[in-house]
Write a structure and sequence with these properties.
This protein is α+β, with helices and mostly antiparallel strands. About 30% of the residues lie in helices and about 15% in strands.
Length: about 260
């Protein structure tokens, strides 16, 4: 990864998006980092392994979506600013990043008063909880899952259709339970975008339970990047007839 906010839309250096293109993100240089936002929103007892999974699910909604992908620097390695929502004037102590993924800045202290004091009482027990500070194993896992998302995105033009007309022709969303998004990209509709695939099915499962989705037809298999990757949980995804099942807090990608 690189040490700056970057565009992973598969465009050459210096690429500038057309004004009409959508920039998608789940965290940016303003407000809390993704890891810190999840620290506020997930139950405090959520395991670090599940926090890594939710970090990946969150990033997957950007990496596998339409438009220009924007990732905040360090979001792939669970970057924290110790819950600081505006670190512009917070100095290196809150903004530092260990790109070797051995030291995480969560728990560095209460962030500055100006933009954070109203949440100090919520922050104190979180920042004092050693179980919420990611270690090297968690950061390495998050980083590798993020790299896999990028490899999936770059594996097919179906993730980078490039025009509103192509998106309208090929992309639709299936009925799914609350907390689940099922996106079908049908390459049999409209002009062919990927000679190696008839389509892609992405199931984003942010719930704490396994979920299944139907309505996309048969013939799906787990994407090769995930089937051969380092996430043993996603390998538990299954296909039965016209239904696919996806483990808790997992984004699974199927193709055919």
């Amino acid at each position: 990864m690189v040490g700056n906010d970057v565009d992973y839309n598969g465009q050459p250096a210096g690429y500038a998006a057309d004004p009409g293109e959508t920039v998608t993100y789940v965290d940016a240089h303003d407000n809390e980092t993704l890891f810190d936002s999840l620290a506020f929103k997930l139950p405090q007892g959520t395991s670090m392994a599940d926090r890594v999974r939710m970090n990946t699910v969150s990033l997957s909604t950007v990496a596998l979506s339409r438009g220009v992908v924007f990732w905040h620097a360090g979001t792939d390695l669970l970057r924290s600013k110790s819950l600081d929502r505006n670190s512009y004037d917070s100095g290196d102590w809150f903004n530092r990043v260990d790109w070797e993924r051995r030291d995480n800045t969560f728990g560095s202290g209460l962030p500055l008063r100006a933009d954070n004091e109203a949440k100090w009482e919520f922050m104190r027990p979180l920042l004092a909880d050693p179980a919420l500070k990611p270690g090297a194993v968690a950061m390495d896992a998050a980083h590798e899952r993020a790299r896999e998302l990028l490899r999936i995105r770059m594996s097919s033009r179906l993730f980078r259709l490039g025009s509103a007309d192509a998106i309208r022709a090929k992309v639709r969303f299936l009925d799914a339970a609350p907390g689940v998004i099922a996106m079908l990209i049908d390459d049999t509709a409209g002009a062919d975008a990927d000679a190696d695939r008839d389509g892609v099915l992405v199931v984003f499962n942010a719930t704490p339970d396994e979920q299944s989705v139907g309505g996309a037809g048969e013939g799906w298999t787990l994407h090769d990047v995930q089937a051969t990757g380092g996430d043993e949980v996603v390998k538990g995804s299954s296909v039965t007839g016209e239904r696919v099942s996806v483990p808790a807090r997992t984004t699974a990608v199927f193709d055919r």
